[in-house]
Amino acid sequence: MRNLIFRFGIILLLVVVPTLIQSETKISSAPNFVAKDLSGTKVELKEVLKGGPVLISFWATWCKPCIKELGELQKVYKKYREKGFEILAVDVDGPRSVSKVRSMVKGLGWDFPVLWDESKDIYRSYQVLGIPHTVLINTSGEIVYTHTTYRPGDEEIIKKKIEELLNKPIQPAEEKRGEKSEK
Q: By CB neighbour count within 10 A (0-12 exposed, 13-18 middle, 19+ buried), where does 15 fall?
């Protein structure tokens, strides 16, 4: 029995661990979406990305870690929004909680856009398994960082990543693949 457990452990190390490491460093494209904000205005991700990097935070009114994280992210937003950084807080509350969202956002003083995802289409397209779930996207539409859950200090990692994105010019996708764009 010990031998069987040992062999299973070796298989896990050889197969699963490299897959997990690759998934952390893999850059993928962020799915585009259109959603309404609290005032009913449609917001499209690809349009927002034209102004700078975007952080999407999936949250709900009943999620205490979400509220703590977004409170810290509000401070980050104030620091970097003038440089083009944007936060889109995607609310995933069910129909019973939606009425609480406006008053909570106002009471907490969040001034970044809060979007409705009543159908959970955005949630599913980003393959969110739990909240809070944070996704940082560069201006080329590539996901450069994701994180699920919240611990105090996580915002420092996010700040560092935002600074890297704001200080590093992003080349068009064609030039990244070794092709020169013709002008």
A: exposed
52, 139 Cβ separation under 8 angstroms: yes
pLDDT digits (tens, 9 = 90+) for 126-181: 999 999 999 999 999 999 999 999 999 999 999 999 999 998 765 544 444 444 44
Q: List the beta strands (DSSP E) in the chain.
A: 28-29, 34-36, 42-44, 54-59, 86-91, 114-116, 133-137, 142-148
Domains of the chain: residue spans and CATH: 27-167 (3.40.30.10)
Q: Is 162 left (phi over 0), alpha (psi -120 to 50) or beta?
A: alpha
Is the pTM here over 0.85, yes or no?
no
For 90-121, write each residue's pLDDT tens digit.
999 987 877 799 999 999 999 999 999 988 99
DSSP H or E stretch at residue 22? helix 2-25
How would you classify residue 128: left for phi > 0, otherwise alpha for psi between -120 and 50, otherwise beta? beta
**Position 6 pLDDT exceeds 90:** no
Name the token pair of 116.
């409705």
Contact between residue 101 and residue 93 where contact means Cβ atoms under 8 Å apart: yes
Helical H segments across 26-149, by residue range? 45-48, 64-80, 98-108, 121-125
Beta bridge partners of 43: 35
